[in-house]
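Progress note, sequence design subtask.
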């Protein structure tokens, strides 16, 4: 149904039986945002009628064991014949950063475009900075917060996008750096005299050095490095490193990480290179 999901995930249209399953994950997936009032607000936004009457324009994504991984609830506007509306979207925090949300949006765009719709609208709460960043990256235009949009005290930010010119966001890409690397720990915190290092991390216990591995370094001490090819995310975007480490952990691949201001550097044992790359590609990452 959705071709560019990671191979381990499957999508389908939801049914009324899925309604309690979705309600059950809302508070956890939203991290308890706004406390009890927020939990009640989210539950009230998803009555059963959406699963009864808008299933054919909505999507539900599941893990191989049937557990819920993501959902999108959307519909065709009945008053604006060229418009569709995305009402509610959620993604398991363990999958954040893997492009699942963007994939669901693009699937919805394709579905409603085939129905002759040219515009998609949606809203979020002003304090949901993750949602606001996500929609901006997809190319949505955003309003300023509109007071009392959904009733007294319920301000919203309204988004809109034209399906004739929405950008296509590629899968998150990692570049496999040339050569192999070794890890060293030095008690002396001063920078090495040579320039054959890739990264330095200074800490109270000394200096960690990621450097080009010499030929004399044993195979079991050699690492290969992956680095973000297009580091265009903000510092306030959660789950990016977790999205990389989760498939590697499931494949039992050890990792060593270091982060720059712009992106993450992920090292895996050279002996596990093929296993690591296969795990990342299966999770939806592009390796170049």
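Output:
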């Amino acid at each position: 149904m959705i071709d560019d999901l990671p191979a381990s995930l499957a999508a389908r249209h939801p049914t009324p039986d899925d309604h309690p399953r979705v309600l059950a994950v809302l508070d956890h997936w939203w991290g308890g945002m706004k406390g009890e009032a927020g939990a009640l607000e989210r539950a009230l936004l998803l009555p059963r009628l959406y699963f009864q009457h808008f299933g054919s324009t909505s999507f539900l994504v599941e893990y191989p064991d049937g557990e819920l991984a993501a959902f999108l609830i959307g519909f065709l506007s009945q008053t604006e014949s060229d418009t569709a509306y995305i009402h509610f979207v959620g993604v398991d925090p363990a999958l954040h950063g893997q492009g699942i949300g963007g994939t669901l949006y693009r699937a919805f765009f394709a579905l409603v475009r085939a129905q002759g719709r040219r515009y998609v609208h949606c809203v979020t709460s002003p304090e949901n900075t993750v949602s606001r960043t996500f929609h901006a990256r997809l190319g949505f235009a955003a309003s300023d917060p509109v007071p009392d949009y959904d009733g007294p005290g319920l301000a919203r930010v309204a988004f809109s996008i034209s399906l004739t010119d929405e950008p296509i966001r590629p899968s998150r890409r990692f570049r496999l750096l040339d050569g192999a690397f070794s890890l060293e720990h030095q008690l002396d915190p001063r920078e090495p005299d040579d320039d054959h290092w890739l990264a330095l991390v200074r800490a109270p216990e000394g200096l960690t050095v990621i450097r080009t591995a010499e030929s004399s370094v044993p195979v079991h001490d050699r690492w290969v490095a992956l680095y973000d090819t297009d580091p265009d995310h903000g510092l306030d975007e959660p789950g990016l490193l977790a999205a990389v480490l989760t498939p590697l952990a499931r494949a039992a691949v050890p990792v060593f990480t270091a982060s720059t201001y712009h992106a993450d550097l992920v090292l895996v044992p050279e002996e596990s290179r093929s296993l690591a790359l296969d795990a990342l590609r299966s999770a939806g990452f592009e390796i170049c």
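The helical segments are 19-29, 35-44, 49-53, 100-113, 129-138, 240-250, 273-282. Work on this subtask will continue into the next period as scheduled.
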